[in-house]
């Protein structure tokens, strides 16, 4: 049986690591690329896959970039990590800090983070500060902190984060034998779409894939700065992971869109929650709301005939549904409470 490797060990030749880079790993990456059993056929798409990043160590894609950012920070002598977060980055930074006996400082927008994500950061031992305002304000504060004090900033403005995140593109090509025709993913701070495009281009330049995908990004209507071409001062959406009004990688996202001939569009919260239930009930995949925004967008594009039926599409599910279950629970039937025996149970269930 082959040994599973973390991102740095598996893709060392593609990453900015040296002999002095510490061997940091929680065995992140190597997440499954799952073929659709139901949704693809319902949309008339012959080949639809889900890249399920929720099976990373802390439950989201953030671990790919975090392992490289933390390893490089340690190589440079850092002992304190800092980040702003809507949830997933904080969990990842705190976990890797704990694994390497580093100190982690997490700044979150007060009242804007899913409790399950906050609990991860706290359990991993991070110092969590809830700052009044939104994510963009929190990011501005930690950037200033990192510029003035001896702390390593591990948000996606750290270039090593994107280097780690691009490995997901490598995995997709390695699994399919080529790049897909469409790569559909959520866009919040926009680092991930930037990283995927970088990965596909690097593999293409090296002859590892023949085609390049069209990059399709999904934002939420209440937090769609790239779609609308303006900063959202008060972003609002049920998908907390993409509740960002001024993406740090805005330019990278638009470059990925334009160079690939793709698009970035917005979907409503209703579409996101419907897609979340559809994905779970039809494919057995529970993903957080932000992860379901790209499925909602792909469904709309397919129904409008804007996706070739014979194409290969990959939807990136960036985080586990266990990250933010409250939104999902508000849209499903509650458990049935019953006093009685098997006969009473059968009657209620209409067996």
What does this structure look like?
The protein has helices at 7-10, 39-42, 62-75, 88-99, 115-123, 135-148, 159-165, 167-176, 191-205, 225-228, 250-260, 269-283, 289-303, 325-329, 342-348; strands at residues 33-35, 47-52, 80-84, 103-109, 127-131, 152-153, 182-186, 214-220, 263-267, 312-317. It is of the alpha/beta class. The strands form two sheets. A six-stranded mixed sheet has the order 1-2-10-7-8-9. Helix 4 links the parallel strand 3 (80-84) and strand 4 (103-109). The model has no long low-confidence stretch (mean pLDDT 95).
Helix share, percent: 40-55%
Quote the distance from N terminus to C terminus: 45 Å
What is the CA-atom radius of gyration, in angstroms? Answer: 20 Å
Structural class: alpha/beta
Which parts are unreliable, with pLDDT below 50 for 5 consecutive residues or more? none
Figure out the total of helices: 15
- With strands numbered from the N-terminus, the spatial order across the biggest sheet is 1-2-10-7-8-9
Biggest pleated sheet: 6 strands, mixed
H/E element sequence: HEHEHEHEHEHEHHEHEHHEHHEHH
Q: How confident is the prediction overall: mean pLDDT?
A: 95
According to DSSP, the number of beta strands is 10
* Portion in strands: 5-15%
